């Protein structure tokens, strides 16, 4: 028998899985006749895309932490809130930039606040991983208990520092208001949110697919033990991903804060329901699935909020159930050992 | 007598409530192939995992290249020159063949000449270079798993049942590849159920039972002794054919 038999056996390469990518456009087109007015539909769709990008940014960190480290981090909500609140520290020093009639100064203020939010959340994530999460790796029940406990403590600390009432986070002057495209009113900040979301998504794809760190993360999501057996210290990778995930939560938090122009200590927790739905819909550990899931969740919430406001949150539960009935491990499940 | 490249002295390993290894004594000489044989559940895989630091020895000592490594972390062992080919292959299925090998080459891009040599040993990997490892056949995954372990020179390779579930043609390919690898003076500790495969490669042999090594010696001596085979393995080479 020839030893080359198996070498000529061509693997059955499945075609690229484009179907989940079609879901968001199909959902949008299906909503058009229900909404009626094309202008209203376009406004709702763009609002959904902007909201989806912000949720994606928050959820992408969580899905990587979940996928790579197998950690159920309910305290992710705290990093969302902390990021948003820490941006308010610059409201005093940079208020002249925020209110200036200059796009450059306004963009500079936004950039600095976003950077500060990410940095503070990253630092908090580093400390949280070292002190709270590290002792409970591999123990899900303990993870739930300590991360929920961490979330409660963090919320109380934020309340103690900034007070229980709403804190304003005004948008820089240049990003306020709307632009009219025909009859469609488009909020400027939503365009900014879509642009930032796309940049973050592209950067994540680039890192995951074109760098050694990205290869390690993808391999670690699948089989951390084998990554260690190849000589890589998975703990360092864990810390790096936890810190990056926390920074993304902070970034998403401050973007959401600008979107609402108001912060509350409970904002992260309120968003966490959507964030967890996105992570589950997308497939644990899948950044691409997280992106598609975030768009679906946000579009569904916007259309449902317009068509039947009382069903807005329930609509996302229905969406999650429908997707899990179709693909029980999410849209783009990541192979696990 | 030179010190063996790898030695285990009275090694015990507990996994949860189970006492798996119960005082393993094993010597693996450098530059050859040592087969680790035994019935299912004898402790062969546990021995490899304990050497690799994936399970921690609860007692005893493990020495590699003159150094005590009993408590060494898995990444340090890999960096120190030990490679591991697990029974489950464990290729990264989301990564392509190329990406699997790039990741295994810690020092940077794989050496071109060595890579060419590996792809000569396993031509399928060249053919499916850009294909996700998850869609490869079982044999191709096993080839990739071995290729990943040797993409950079290693002092010791721990290989767990490389022929398990493979078609005879692939087993022949694997045997040729290991024979070629053996010629490079790489030390191999081979866990194998296929006695013919093990006999073809191994210079020395150790047989395990109930978490201990119950026999160690030259492979040629075991291959020539039907009675010893029956006593240690439950089957003789003749009945294996």
Describe this structure in words.
With 337 residues, chain A is mostly helical. Chain A has a single domain (37-326), classed as ABC transporter involved in vitamin B12 uptake, BtuC (Orthogonal Bundle). In chain A, 71% of the residues lie in helices and 4% in strands. Chain A has helices spanning 19-35, 38-69, 76-87, 95-99, 103-133, 140-162, 188-210, 212-222, 224-229, 234-260, 267-282, 287-307, 312-326; strands at residues 167-168, 178-181, 184-187, 262-263. In chain A, strands 1-4 form a two-stranded antiparallel ribbon. In chain A, strands 2-3 form a two-stranded antiparallel sheet. In chain A, β2 (178-181) and β3 (184-187) form a beta hairpin. Mean pLDDT of chain A is 90; it is low at 1-8. Chain B is an alpha/beta fold and 241 residues long. Chain B has two domains: 1-81 and 155-167 and 185-241, P-loop containing nucleotide triphosphate hydrolases (Rossmann fold), CATH 3.40.50; 90-153, no CATH class. Chain B is built from eleven helices and ten strands. In chain B, β1 and β2 (18-28) form a beta hairpin. The model of chain B has no long low-confidence stretch (mean pLDDT 92). The chains are: A mainly alpha (337), B alpha/beta (241). Chains A and B meet through α8 and α9 of A and α2, α3, α5, α6 and α7 of B.
